[in-house]
Please model this.
Amino acid sequence: MHISFIIPAFNEAQLIERCLHSVADALAANSSYGFAHEVIVVDNNSTDTTAQLAKQAGARVVFEPVNHIARARTAGANAA
Model:
């Protein structure tokens, strides 16, 4: 099984690292199930360092220029 974690983000520089660490902790706690995974952060046209921080934390970053949550989720689903 392959699981995609899609995280829409707009100007989340203050919280994105904690969010991604939380996802990593959950994955580590459930590693015995043996599923493959990916973490996709959809940068929804942020003006801060959200995308850079997400990349540094190991997430795949996808850019969605239109600020709209549904567009961000769709961009993440298409990337998955």
In short: The two ends are 13 Å apart (CA to CA). Residues 3 and 37 are 5 Å apart (CA to CA). The helical segments are 16-29, 50-56, 69-79. The mean pLDDT is 96.
